[in-house]
Task: structure prediction
Amino acid sequence: MSTAVEFRNVTKRFGDFVAVDDLSLSVEKGQFVTLLGSSGSGKSTSLMMLAGFMAPTSGSIFIDGEDVTGVPPDRRNIGLVYQNYALFPHMTVAANVGFPLKMRHMSKSDISERVRASLEKVRLGAFADRFPAQLSGGQQQRVALARAMIFEPAILLMDEPLGALDKNLREEMQVEIKRIQQDAGITTIYVTHDQEEAMSMSDNVVVMSGGKIEQAAPPAELYEQPRNAFVAQFIGSANVLLGKFNTTDGQASFVSDAGASLPLAVPLPDPSGTRKTAIIRPERIRFTVANDPNAIKAVVETVLFGGTMIRYAVRAGEQRLDVVAVNDGNPPRHTGELVHLAWDPKDFLLVDGGGV
Ligand SMILES: Nc1ncnc2c1ncn2[C@@H]1O[C@H](COP(=O)(O)OP(=O)(O)OP(=O)(O)O)[C@@H](O)[C@H]1O
Ligand SMILES: [Mg+2]
Result:
């Protein structure tokens, strides 16, 4: 594998404000990488610097090993799709898609051939003569995709391309974009603040916050080994417990600040008294029998019946915990019920620090 894109210590300031803070990131050829983060975390700014529409305050950007920091946008061989990247309303679908080739002075016959092939790829072969207003939102976005890819760019950038679509269409388009991206083998950097979208589409997800990378990893690794409580809560949901290790009575445990003593079925990784943050996913907590040696006692406070899954809020001492169970057809637990809970030691994750 070789590196298609590299940000090397890239910082972008607007006055005193640091929008992108010493960003270093490599993207391999053909990879689908998503920048995921809440509003204002620096995703679009990073993309705009890569596309060449904005210059970094410091640091360098490389494409195919070449420093492009000072290279203008039209010389970077990058295709772009935005959320509201409006198609030209007075032009047909075919004219919209062929526009970048016209700008590159390609012959009419070559353009029409390429447009035809490109519309086939996004499954809009029959729509060439329509105008944008005669298309659904998803179809318009596919036209925008065909237009971004028609000059066969080395890199495709997409900034919230599905933001304006409703949920069903969004999910359909996620599959479609992934299919097109894989067929073309095109290196893609995608921006979203939807964690499910990021997880389901990407080879690698870059979790950003305050212009910095919190963690960059494949989706399963982010979920199973979040580096900190922020990532754990951003990707899926997580019980985050602050507390410290304890070894009284010869048994290793984690005592949360809220007073719950959680048995650790593994040797203590750090000296007793060390402050840690523990993370446990709600679906990794299971109901168990009263004499399970590693069980904790809790009281059910709320029950949310969701069909496939049942969500419980329980209280162990003063410690609130969320528990998610698959609906197995048995009656759900009820409010006020005393329950016993346990988990696999591997699902009890310890990260540094006290603060969240
Ligand atoms: N031209 C500008 N001048 C001043 N501040 C800016 C400018 N462009 C962006 N910012 C600020 O930089 C930060 C990062 O903006 P950016 O657009 O990269 O966020 P984002 O992660 O794309 O957010 P969103 O999900 O809302 O699109 C924000 O706080 C924003 O207000
Ligand atoms: Mg943005």
Observations:
- The chain has two domains: 3-233, 237-351.
